[in-house]
Amino acid sequence: MFCRCPHCAKARELGGKNIRTRSSAIIDDTLKIDFPPDTLHHVLRDRIDLGLVKDLFVTHTHSDHLRAEDLEMRLPVYAHGLDHPLRVYGHDAVVRKCREAVGRPGAEHISIRRILPFETVDTGTTLVTALPANHDPDETCLLYYIEKDGKSIFYGHDTGLLPEETWSWLASRKLDLAILDCTNGNLPFTGSHLNIEAVLAIRNRLNDAGILRNGGQTVVTHFSHNIGLLHDDLTAIFNPEYIIVAYDGMVISI
Question: Which of 9, 49, 160, 251 lies most in the core, judged by the most C-beta atoms within 10 Å?
Fold first, then answer.
């Protein structure tokens, strides 16, 4: 937000799909992945009814993915007209950060539950399996495999190259949509985030292993300003590979 580099200046000048806030996703209005500091902005910009969300799955505690303090806005006095609790899921560091922010609110308002790698949560409408990421060696970071109504999504960021144990678990599954980290763009691969070369390698392995269904889609997201690539630059790179470049407010049907 303080940056004055030419890439940020150009993005602000052009606007539109070049304005990138911090990443999250909502599935069918009721399941949310991550809770970044820009969530209120997303609600206002995209006219989202966050009161519909029943389940919040958090990948890790880095500040661009979890602003636990804003969970207080889900409690009485701040939030009215709610008819169900919000169930929050994450590994130990996520649980600890959420507890520090809101304590132990009544289960009728917010429940906070620790989940382990390879554990599957049945929300009542959706099956969500936590998978190991390769991101922060000091924290158990998670990716998510999400199944609903015969369709499946892999939410694959933040991470570097996927751990082999994650590949082993995915080997017997099918995907309709893979969402992949592309933080490093055309910069050298660093290990904890993907670049373009690593994205293509993962997409190709998904295809070669028969994990990505015929007609399945791949989306790249979570771009750093340090890569110096605006939206049109990224689409010029990924369109020939039939990979979709995410932008704020994008909606995909599968």
Answer: 160
Superfamily of domain 118-247: Ribonuclease Z/Hydroxyacylglutathione hydrolase-like (3.60.15.10)
What pLDDT, in 10s, does the model give residues 16-57?
999 999 999 999 999 999 999 999 999 999 999 999 999 999
How many Cβ atoms from other residues are within 10 Å of residue 79's Cβ? 14
Q: CATH code for 21-114?
A: 3.60.15.10
Task: Name 212's bridge partners.
Answer: 175
Place of tokens 């791949």: 218
pLDDT tens across 86-106, in order?
A: 999 999 999 999 999 999 998
Count H helices and E strands in the chain, helices first: 6, 12
Its pTM surpasses 0.85: yes
What's the rounded Cα separation, in Å, for the pair 156 and 57?
13
Gap between the Cα atoms of 186 and 188, Å rounded: 7
Q: Is the pLDDT of residue 189 over 90?
A: no
Beta strands 142-148 and 151-156 are antiparallel
The long-range contacts involving 112-116, CB below 8 angstroms and separated by at least 24 positions, are 112/88, 113/87, 113/88, 113/89, 114/89, 114/90, 115/89, 115/90, 115/91, 115/142, 116/91
Question: Same CATH topology for 21-114 and 118-247?
Answer: yes
Evaluate whether 182 touches 196 at the Cβ level (below 8 Å). yes
